[in-house]
Amino acid sequence: MTVSEMPASAGSSAMAAIEPELVSLLESLPESVEYATVRFRSDESQVLSVRSNVLEPIENGIDAGVMVTVWEGGGSGYGATSELSPAGLSSALAAARRWATATADTAVLPAAPFGVAAGAYSGPVVIPWSSLDMASRVDLLMGASKRLAADDRIVDWEAGVTITDSSQLILSTNGSRIEQCWSNTFPTMRATAAAAGLVQTRTLGGFSYGGQGGVEVLERFGFSDAPDRLASEALELLAAPNTPGGTMDIVLAPDQMVLQIHESIGHPLELDRILGDERNYAGTSFVTPDMFGTYQYGSELLNVSFDPTLDGELACYAFDDDGTPAKRELLIENGVLKRPLGGQISQDRAGMDGVANSRACSWNRPPIDRMANLNVEPGNDSFEELVAGVENGIYMETNNSWSIDDSRNKFQFGCEYGRLIRNGELGAVVRNPGYRGISSTFWRSLSGVGTADTSVVMGVPNCGKGEPNQMITVGHTSPTCRFGDIEVFGGER
Amino acid sequence: MSDVQTYFTELVGWATSQLEGEEVLLASFTGESSDFVRLNGVKVRQAGTVTQRSVTLKLILGDHQASGTLRLSQQPEIDRPQVASMVRTLREQVAVVPADPFLLYCTNPEMSSHRAVEAELPDAADVMDQLVSVSATEGHDLVGIYAAGTTYRGFANSLGQHNWHEATTFNLDWSQYLQADKAVKSGYAGTHWDEAELTRKLNQSRQQLAVLARKPVDLEPDHYRSFLSPAALIDILDMMAMGGFSLKATRTSQSPLLRMVNEGAKLDPAVSIRETTVDGLAPNFQSDGFRRPDEVTMIESGAYGTPLVSPRSAKEYGEETNGAEAHESPESLVVDPGNLPADEVLSQLDRGLYVGNLWYLNFSDQSACRTTGMTRFATFWVEGGEIVAPANVMRFDDTAFSMLGSNLLGLTTTTETVLDASTYGGRQTNSYRVPGVLVEDMAFTL
């Protein structure tokens, strides 16, 4: 889609309004500036939630700002500001130049490695939220809320949606011009049941349900049917026995796989972690540069892609925030590690190929290596076949706890909902299912990968990383998967 | 009065002039002018300056409300049309949303306040040069971030109330690496930069690095007597604070400390936990205009005390608010010291783990306040009261009722003050003052 074909939005109007100012700013630069880029970003958001049949205060948001990045004299620096007047932009530019001068002898790269890029992207929207007025939005959520209150033992419940519209314009001194717009929708739902000292919560996919699009995203995740199911399952969990401990096979639903992929494949493959940038905060990685091309990351059933093109997934885009054109790449093929998650700067520092994943969470943070869409490719087993292959094990749904060491190796996850598997058949419901393992061996125990019809397009809205800290949305798509001989445990009660 | 405060005050005054009939407007301000320098070894990964201001407007008519947050340009000709547009949007929403039975806001203009924390900060580029120089000349592999500047928080309403809080601070958060994952983490934060204090901290880290050079031990999953440094205890407290001190979380059965309220479970009598706003860097007011008391005691001698109560929870559950934000978690957390002298920590530990830092904590059973996480950075195996070797990372999985209850052996007589280095969205104003704790039989599982 070309820019002229895009529907006009408040964000694109804001981009059009500020572009002459940004062009002037770049044209004002002296010849000593070797490369500079300005990135304007605006976000409009609305958070709606009905908790226990009462509408929570509506939260609207409008954010806009500019980051100016300058490469000059061997150094680089940025200035970011919400002050969008000519004076504010000039101050940001001056700050960026000061930092470029100050880092002339110490910057990780002495020159900008970016090529010329031009183009546009507009995320898919079938039913825009503007087609649903405020009263209708509230009615939708209130209806869901009332159905969640199915029993006196449901003590707290909530139905909500977060809607975001984002626009970004990047202009650079090399002539690059990139305009991108995204609309995201995140449905949420929760039923908390309590009785006799036990508390159990069931949610709509934990934190993992969201996608590019409008109202239609709700039904991708079964929003209409969810209230009755979640209330019923929360009550079911209250009456269920604790998960038995032991070593056994596990079958993981996509809304648990999302965190397993994120923590034990995504983060370890980030090239800036491998280069040490995150050692003080998000951590390092057990993966080292020499592993690429030969390391058996998982069983031969494991294929993992970086795919910014999968329609509707949260991190689809045409260019990353450094202006690198985005395309699909296989990171792990038949279990063998192929390629890291590193943007152009990391690629130049490491002397390795990477992907277009240099992203900033907003205008006020510089781009760093992120996951974008990181997906497990579907396999050949139906859900029934995955279960049939388990003599003694647990099926787990919906992540509610995640923890992993700073090298991304020793992990532990908890889920909301479990079912015993005995002799190849799903059995009784169990509460507080959890498991732990080590990344470098866990993926080699992958013994079954579900077909495409078990796969769900999801994501993580709150991936935290970077100094200063950044929280960003990433996409994950996964089928149901089976792993052998995993340490499983339950709760205290 | 700073320029930023003056601008906010005038903007709210102008916004008030746009109100109609019985409308009430609440306005919360947040802003910062900050330098960030990110270091990796002898290189600078990223360096820059961020200037940002935003205002959250809440429009109220009777018992109907809607709110909206706007990023500000600090220019009236840009901001006023945006404010007017947002007020119109909120007015349209207020007209169609149902009445809010839990709406509560401060109506007493005498709750106004002003606080400014002054500072003497060096030029951030000079700090960067100093740190890079230390790395280059002394062979330190230093990685981390220096963040410095002024943070602003404000509140005003159409009833005439004005609250302002600004603090100029620095926060250097760094690790010195020996190799792979063997490192010492440290922090230096405050309002007055002292190069000698930085040198002292760097030397202290260097001494620990020397121990990290020894061959590390791999420990089997088991129960170990453990000392948790103040930094490690803060991570445990952060988990407890995820609903543990919240009235709403308690009343909705989602508090990790629910057993303390419903079943009378207690922590060790030596444990007292307080929200001490008077000593912290967080503002003494919240976004509905309510002032915070100097101190709220959430855990008193091991027993559940007073929860943090937001205005909304106050209305919903018929309690008095104590100035908490909607999240009802502490912002100026203090744990009382105990009787364990700092110089006896190793001898009292005798044989076990000295845990410098924990990492990536999460509940493994929230209703039992059972938490899992990893050891990280300087964690050592101790025998005979002496550090023997660094310990490779271990996963713990244990309950607060055990670690700070039945298995607590003591808290140190000294406490450490830590300013939150978190910068999600912007620089934070949270702080902690906590001791270290000695724990018997802490559960390690992987």
Can you lay out the helices and strands and say which pair or pack?
The complex is a heterodimer of chains A (493) and B (446).
Chain A: H1 10-27, E1 33-51, E2 54-55, E3 59-72, E4 75-81, H2 86-102, E5 118-122, H3 134-148, E6 154-172, E7 177-195, E8 198-203, E9 211-212, H4 216-220, H5 226-239, E10 246-252, H6 254-269, H7 271-274, E11 304-306, E12 329-333, E13 336-337, H8 344-350, E14 358-359, E15 368-369, E16 374-376, H9 383-388, E17 392-404, E18 410-422, E19 425-430, E20 434-438, H10 439-442, E21 446-449, E22 456-465, E23 470-478, E24 481-489
Parallel strand pairs in A: 5-7, 10-17
Antiparallel strand pairs in A: 1-2, 1-3, 1-6, 3-4, 6-7, 7-8, 7-9, 10-24, 11-12, 11-16, 12-13, 14-15, 17-18, 18-19, 18-20, 20-24, 21-24, 22-23
Helix pairs in contact in A: 3-5
Chain B: H1 3-16, E1 24-40, E2 43-61, E3 64-71, H2 76-96, E4 113-117, H3 124-138, E5 141-157, E6 162-179, E7 182-190, H4 195-212, E8 222-228, H5 230-240, H6 247-251, H7 258-262, E9 273-275, E10 296-300, E11 303-304, H8 311-317, E12 332-335, H9 345-349, E13 352-365, E14 370-383, E15 386-390, E16 395-399, H10 400-406, E17 408-411, E18 416-419, E19 431-434, E20 437-444
Parallel strand pairs in B: 4-6, 8-13, 12-19
Antiparallel strand pairs in B: 1-2, 1-5, 2-3, 5-6, 6-7, 8-20, 9-10, 9-12, 10-11, 13-14, 14-15, 14-16, 17-20, 18-19
